[in-house]
Amino acid sequence: MKKITFLLCLLIASTGFSQVVLEDFEALPASGFEGFEGLGGANIVANPSVDANNPSATVGELIVVDAGQPWQGANLVMQTNYLDVTTPVTQTVDVDVYSLSAFNMLARLADAQSGATESAADVSHTGSGWETLTFTFNQALDATGVANGEYGIIAFFPNWNGAGWHDPEIERTVYIDNLTGFAGDVVVVPPADPEAAPLPTSPDGETYSIYNDTNGYTTFFPFAYDFGTLGGEPDLDPGAGTNLAYKFDFGFAGYGVGEGGPDDVTAYDFVSFDYWASDPTPGFRFVLISNDGAVVESSFEVGTDVALTKGAWTKVVIPMSYFTNLGFSDAHLFQWKADAFMGTTDPNSIVYIDNILLTVNDPSLSLNDFETAQFKVYPNPASDKWNVTSNSILNSVEVYDVLGKQVISLSPNTNDVVIDASNLNPGMYFAQINGANGSKTIKLIKD
């Protein structure tokens, strides 16, 4: 038995499966510790009693006041790693708590990742100064469940009576420090908002605006309701003006808008939008939805139907025929939405979208010469090489994988070029071909 125990301890130590201090309040930003529901204060202050039980210089302070709600408390937001409580009986959470009066503390796990269940547990404090309280999140208190995953927030409630809330509240000040638990995945900091997308140049009389707030287009999508969850609608204009954009958090859900119509948009031949994607984003779907008695969703996927660009505003131009060929009825535009790549949420996917327009003519200057620029790629699929020919000089050929990573770059300056695919893995790629008379993106398949 001793040998088995020793080997188990050795395995735990070698894999790093042990508690660590996830927050000690020494460098926590103010936004990482915030009160709610009328808490009198959630502050980062000097340790009220530096002693052997807690020699820290800085701690978190919670002030309960009777002017707030009985369930007043404070959120502690994880800054480096999520709190892993996949197995609550063995993955407990320790918190140093200071109080000079006995009370019960409720802690609740929130910002649950990947479908985990919010969970709450409580522990009694004797009122003897600094004590280490151990929370075991299998109690399912406060209408929650048993913890079963990773969490970005742990909330503390000092006005808990063991079965509910003190009402009226018992005014008290308590202090917390040294949140100790099991480290989960690294917390990915959301990207800073980019500057605004370029202003559209398509003329008013040729444009139907689905989403745009800068050009004053007189024909626009009659917004009636929305659905899903939007990550925000920030103003990206760096100056005194206003230039809004939709911010999508595809780690959580997609978002869309509907109208009372449907609307007839048969006069327009192109669909376009500008997007900006954060670095880890694999892609996203843009969907037009029609209703002519039957609801039909027609999807264009950035990252599959066209290569994804990250960290820069990029314009996507799609012929309306692409959607109508999928069954979309352009006489009955009903809704539109943006959704996660391949329908699967990704916690790192942040995408901004602006200037969603239907236009009579192609709004992208780089595509104006498509009719005169002719490209041919063969064989496709190919096992070792693709041949590209054109009726004009090919200035550059850039090949990207489905994640937007450039894998080949060529500058042929001739009318034909061979793309060597022998070192590429089988799968889908995109070739951005730039010629003297225009540019085009072509989907390539490697056998």
List keywords for this structure.
447 residues; mainly beta; 12-stranded antiparallel sheet; 6-stranded antiparallel sheet
Secondary structure topology:
Blueprint lengths: L1 H14 L4 E4 L9 E4 L4 E6 L11 E7 L8 E5 L3 E5 L7 E7 L3 E10 L6 E7 L3 E7 L13 E12 L11 E15 L20 E5 L11 E6 L17 E4 L5 E9 L6 E8 L6 E8 L3 E8 L11 E6 H5 L8 E8 L9 E10 L15 E4 L6 E17 L4 E5 L3 E7 L6 E9 L2 E9 L1
Antiparallel strand pairs: 1-12, 2-5, 3-4, 4-12, 5-11, 6-11, 6-12, 7-10, 7-12, 8-9, 8-11, 13-22, 14-16, 15-22, 16-21, 17-20, 17-22, 18-19, 18-21, 23-24, 24-25, 24-26, 24-27, 27-28
Structure description:
The chain has 447 residues and is mainly beta. The chain is built from two helices and 28 strands. The strands form four sheets. Strands 1, 2, 3, 4, 5, 6, 7, 8, 9, 10, 11 and 12 form a twelve-stranded antiparallel sheet that branches. Strands 23, 24, 25, 26, 27 and 28 form a six-stranded antiparallel sheet that branches. A hairpin with a 4-residue loop joins β24 (385-401) and β25. The relative contact order is 0.10. Mean pLDDT is 88; it is low at 1-16 and 365-373.
